[in-house]
Predict the 3D structure of the following.
Amino acid sequence: MKKLGIGVAGLGRAFAVMAPAFRDPRVELVAAADPRPEALQRFKQDHGGKLFASVEELCSDPAVKVVYVATPHELHAEHARIACARGKHVLVEKPMALSLADCRAMIDAARKSGVQLLVGHSHSFDLPFQKARALIEKGQFGAVRMITALDFTDWVYRPRRPEELRAAVQNQGAHQVDIARLLAGGRVLGVRAFTGSFDPGRPAEAAWACQLRFDNGVFASLVYSGYAHFDSDEFMGWIGELGQRKDPAAYGTARRALPGDELALKERRNYGGPEFKGPLPPVAHQHFGVFIVSCEKADLRPLPDGVMIYADGDKRLEPLPAPSTPRVEVIDELYAAVVEGRAPLHDGEWAMATLQVCLALLDSARSGKEIRL
């Protein structure tokens, strides 16, 4: 079996959450680049491999076949283009970039160099959503007619850089939009949205209600709030977004922990910092809140342990085995693209279309009009 050498650009939270997937035997972490010495030393301790101070040096290492770009959002385009220019395949965290022009430049760079460009993790990779899509494609429940999504989290009150708060829709909306596009099976034609910024001390448009209109007649309603009051994991059996078991008694923890020097707190908790804690072991599959797919003959609800089917005459759970490796679906798609030559779903064009919807969501809220794509 051919093993892919992965070089990591950026050792922040995104990498820490993705790291368990890189234990898959088809890939190997061979190098990392980050400006923080403590992060590099932690990487050396955890994974071995070479250490670099810059992405340019990382991309010059012949052992690196794939560069995992997990740097801050505003640097994705630059670092992806550097990797492509060195002939490296690229796996870049969502959001792919912050502008459509940057997305197009990344796609063009990958095509020019003949390398694969994948974008993720987003929750549309998650097995329950993939299983729901497979059930839809079998046709036994008829066509999809409507999608309803709802997620309430504490996203705003986790330690954030100002740039992260300003890109709340691109960051969190990318998950909801990706999943809705996967399940709808069509192209978004129109976006109508309202957004809210509910805390003057946390400048973010981190709440929204959005309707998507698809070219196949499907319509979707997406509701999100990151303001740390209601927690929609209550609807998921207290299984958190990363598949971990949650304690309902821990209500308000994020908000209480935030006062003080926020950036210093973020650094202490970041990979390599003195308060760093990796993700808890999952007990179920990852998710992004409540999704209900209304088909002609049934409603389908992806859950952390399977897909609940509410059909005309009965309801039942289509179970899924517990996850062996978190986010292994990303490795499946990456390996299939790079080694087996199979076209990935989550390629640059897919991710650019998702960003287009997220930007249209913001445009609609500000203009008070439907944005037609």
